[in-house]
Design brief:
- The complex is a heterodimer of chains A (515) and B (108).
- Chain A has 515 residues and is mostly helical.
- In chain A, 76% of the residues lie in helices and 2% in strands.
- In chain A, strands 1-2 form a two-stranded antiparallel sheet.
- The radius of gyration of chain A is 22 Å and the shape is globular.
- Chain B is mainly alpha-helical and 108 residues long.
- A two-stranded antiparallel sheet of chain B has the order 2-3.
- In chain B, a hairpin with a 2-residue loop joins β2 and β3.
- In chain B, α1 runs antiparallel to α3.
- Chain B starts with a strand and ends with a helix.
- The chains are: A mainly alpha (515), B mainly alpha (108).
- At the A-B interface, α5, α10, α11, α13 and β3 of A face β1, α1, β3 and α3 of B.
Chain lengths: 515, 108
C-alpha cells in the first residue's frame, strides 16, 4: 500500500497530528483574546519553541542548506546574517513589547498614537511583509510535493493553502502555537538524524573541506543528468563573489537581515502570548538556542550535500535531483542519498513541518491585521465577540487565496533570497517603529507613518525597479539604504512635527515599569 | 488614555524611577549590541581586507572565516542574549528584594 511508503507515512502522520491538535484546541479559539494571543498563557518553553518554529521556516530547513550547497562560503554568510536577528529582537524589543500587551502589531501603533491612520498603514505593511514571506514558504511545500510525490506545482500550492486555512481558521493561536512547538521538534529531529548519519558515514569537517576546497571541474554525472555543474573549490574557503561581491553589498545584506527579525509581524506577535515580560525574554533566549543549533546543522548538511554530490557514485535520479532541484531541494536529496527512503520520509515530514509552522504564524499575523485591525476597528466597531471571531476565520480564508496567488507567481525563485527580501521590508519599516517607539517618547504619529511609508516604498523601489538603481549600489538586499532611511524618516518627521501623544509618559511607564 | 497631543517641549518629565530603569536597561542593551555588532561587522571587513588571515585553516579543515561565520556566530548570538537575560533577571530580583525589605522596615 502506498500509505506505508515512508514519505507518505510520515507526512500523513504529521497531517493527522495537525488535525488532532487543531480540533482539540478549537474550543480555545472562541474569543478574540484566545484566537489571537491564546489567552496569554504560554510559558517560555512552549513559546520559545513556537518562536523558533515561526523563525525557522522552509528558508532555513531547505533554503540555507541549499544556499551553502550552491554558493559555498557565500551561502553560510547568508545564514550568519539570519542568526543575528533574534538576538537584537530580544535585546531591544521582547520584554517591553509584552508589557504593552495587545493582539496585533498594528495595535502597537494604534494605541501608542491613538491613531486609525497609523493602524491602517501598519496593516498594509503587515500584509506586504507577510506576502513576501509566505510566497517562498508555499513554493517550498509545492516543490517538495512536485519532486517527491509527483504532484503538479499548482496542486502543491492549493494543498498547502487549504491545510493552512484549516489549521489557523479552526485552531486559532492556541492550536497554532502547539502545532508550531511540535513541528519545530519534528524538523529538529529530522536534522539530528541526518546529522548523525552523516557523521557516522565519516563526513567530518576536515574531510568535507579538503574535498570541497581542492575539487575543480565538472561534477561527475551532471552532464548526463542534463545540467553540467562546475565546482570551483576557491569559493568554499572564502567568499566566492556570488552574493558578496564587495564590502558594502555585504554590510547591506547584514543590515537587512539583522534588523529584519525585529520587524517581522509574526515573530513580534508571539511575545504577546507570554504571561509576563520575564517569560518573553526567556522565550527569546530559548528560541535563539534552538535557532543557533539549527543553523549550525543546516550549514553542515549543506556542505555534506555538496561533498556527496562531488564524490559521485550516486544513483542517477539522486544526481538529477541534486543537479536540477536547485538550491531548495538539497536536504531531501541528501537524506535519500545517505539514509534511503525512511530518512527521506522523516525529512520530507520535517520540511512540511517547517512550511506549516512558519506559514501558520504569517496567517495568524495577517488574519489579525484583517480581522482585528480592519474589521473590528473600521468596518464594524460594534461587532460582537462572535462576529469578531467569525471575521478572523474569514480573514484566514482571504489570506489563503492571497498567499496562494503569490505562491503561484514565484515557482522559479530561490526560497532563501525571497525570504531575505521580506526581512529587508521588515527591517526598513517595523524595526525603526518598534525600536524608537519603545525607547524614544519623542516619536510622533506622523513620524511613525512617514517611517513606515518611506521604509516600504524604498524597499519596493530597490527590489522591483533595480534597473532604476545605479549599478554600483544594486545590492541583493538593499538594507544599507532602506534601513537608515526608515530610521531617518521617523526621526526627522517626528522632530519637525513635535506633537506627541499627551499620555506618552503613561505609555512609557507601562512598558518599562517593573511587573 | 487620551487622544490629545502635546508638543514635545511642553511634555512633563517622566517619573525618575522609570527614567532610571530605562537608562539602565538601554545602556546594557546598547553595550551588548555594540559588542555583538563588532563581531558581526568585523568578519566581512576582515574578509575583504585580510583575506590571507581569514583563509587560515583553524579546525577540522575549516578556514578561520568559515569557523567564525558558521560556528562562532551561533555561540555569540546565544551568549549575548543569555547575558542580557541574566542581567535583567538579576536587576529585577534585586529591585524587588530591595523594595520588599523597605516595606518590611516601614512596617516596623
Amino acid at each position: 500500500m502506498i500509505i506505508f511508503e515512508p514519505k507518505y507515512f510520515f507526512t500523513i502522520l504529521l497531517l493527522i497530528s495537525i488535525v488532532v491538535i487543531t480540533f482539540a484546541t478549537q474550543k480555545y479559539s472562541r474569543s478574540t483574546v484566545n484566537f489571537y494571543v491564546a489567552g496569554r498563557s504560554f510559558g517560555w518553553v512552549m513559546n520559545g519553541s513556537a518562536i523558533a518554529g515561526d523563525y525557522l521556516s522552509a528558508a532555513t530547513f531547505l533554503g540555507l542548506a541549499g544556499l551553502t550547497f550552491a554558493f559555498g562560503y557565500d551561502g553560510i554568510f547568508y545564514t550568519f546574517c539570519f542568526s543575528a536577528g533574534l538576538t537584537v529582537l530580544t535585546l531591544f524589543v521582547a520584554g517591553p513589547l509584552r508589557k504593552f500587551g495587545a493582539f496585533t502589531v498594528p495595535d502597537f501603533l494604534a494605541q501608542r498614537f491613538h491613531s486609525k491612520r497609523a493602524r491602517m498603514v501598519a496593516v498594509i505593511v503587515v500584509l506586504a511583509i507577510s506576502g513576501f514571506y509566505a510566497a517562498p514558504q508555499i513554493l517550498g511545500a509545492a516543490a517538495i510535493l512536485k519532486m517527491f510525490f509527483g504532484a503538479t506545482y499548482t496542486f502543491g500550492v492549493v494543498f498547502t493553502v487549504v491545510v493552512m486555512v484549516f489549521y489557523v481558521g479552526v485552531g486559532g493561536m492556541k492550536g497554532t502555537t502547539i502545532n508550531q512547538a511540535l513541528e519545530i521538534w519534528i524538523r529538529f529531529g529530522a536534522f539530528i538524524i541526518l546529522f548523525a548519519i552523516a557523521v557516522a558515514a565519516g563526513y567530518n569537517y576536515g574531510k568535507i573541506m579538503d574535498l570541497l576546497v581542492s575539487f575543480k571541474g565538472t561534477i561527475p554525472g551532471t552532464a548526463e543528468a542534463g545540467k553540467a555543474i562546475v565546482h570551483n573549490g576557491a569559493k568554499w574557503e572564502w567568499t566566492g563573489g556570488f552574493l558578496f561581491k564587495e564590502p558594502l553589498a555585504t554590510i547591506s545584506i547584514l543590515m537587512g537581515l539583522i534588523f529584519g527579525t525585529t520587524g517581522l509581524p509574526h515573530i513580534l506577535l508571539r511575545f504577546y502570548t507570554n504571561p509576563s515580560a520575564k517569560e518573553a525574554r526567556y522565550s527569546g533566549l530559548f528560541a535563539i538556542g534552538i535557532a543557533s543549533a539549527f543553523f549550525f546543522l543546516a550549514l553542515y548538511l549543506g556542505a555534506v550535500g555538496r561533498t556527496v554530490f562531488i564524490e559521485g557514485g550516486l544513483q542517477p535520479h539522486i544526481v538529477k535531483n541534486f543537479a536540477t532541484g536547485g538550491v531548495n531541494m538539497v536536504i531531501p536529496t541528501l537524506a535519500e542519498a545517505l539514509g534511503g527512503k525512511w530518512v527521506l520520509g522523516i525529512v520530507v515530514a520535517g520540511a512540511f513541518a517547517a512550511v506549516f509552522s512558519n506559514l501558520s504564524g504569517l496567517f495568524i499575523a495577517s488574519t489579525g491585521a484583517l480581522g482585528h485591525d480592519i474589521y473590528s476597528h473600521f468596518i464594524n466597531p460594534n461587532a460582537t465577540e462572535k462576529q469578531k471571531v467569525a471575521a478572523a476565520r474569514w480573514s484566514a480564508v482571504f489570506c489563503g487565496v492571497f498567499y496562494g496567488i503569490l505562491g503561484l507567481l514565484v515557482e522559479k525563485a530561490s526560497i532563501g533570497h525571497l525570504v531575505g527580501l521580506a526581512f529587508n521590508v521588515a527591517a526598513s519599516t517595523f524595526a525603526p517603529i518598534f525600536i524608537l517607539g519603545i525607547w524614544w517618547r519623542g516619536m510622533t504619529e506622523k513620524g511613525a507613518i512617514a517611517g513606515l511609508l518611506v521604509g516600504l516604498l524604498s524597499s519596493l523601489y530597490f527590489i522591483f525597479l533595480p534597473q532604476l538603481v545605479p549599478a554600483a549600489i544594486r545590492y541583493p538586499i538593499p538594507g544599507l539604504f532602506t534601513v537608515p532611511l526608515g530610521f531617518l524618516a521617523v526621526y526627522v518627521v517626528s522632530k519637525l512635527d513635535g506633537m506627541v501623544p499627551a499620555d506618552v509618559n503613561e505609555f512609557m511607564a507601562k512598558i518599562h515599569s517593573r511587573e | 488614555m487620551t487622544d490629545k497631543t502635546i508638543h514635545y517641549k511642553n511634555l512633563a518629565p517622566m517619573d525618575s524611577y522609570i527614567v532610571n530603569r530605562m537608562t539602565k536597561e538601554i545602556k546594557i542593551c546598547v553595550l551588548l549590541f555594540l559588542i555583538y555588532a563588532f563581531y558581526l561587522f568585523i568578519v566581512p571587513i576582515l574578509n575583504f581586507n585580510a583575506p590571507d588571515l581569514m583563509r587560515t585553516r583553524v579546525w577540522g579543515g575549516m578556514s578561520l572565516t568559515w569557523f567564525l561565520t558558521a560556528i562562532g556566530s551561533m555561540i555569540m548570538a546565544f551568549v549575548i542574549a543569555a547575558v542580557h537575560v541574566y542581567v535583567y533577571a538579576k536587576d529585577f530580583f534585586i529591585t524587588e528584594a530591595g523594595q520588599d525589605k523597605t516595606s518590611k522596615g516601614a512596617g516596623k
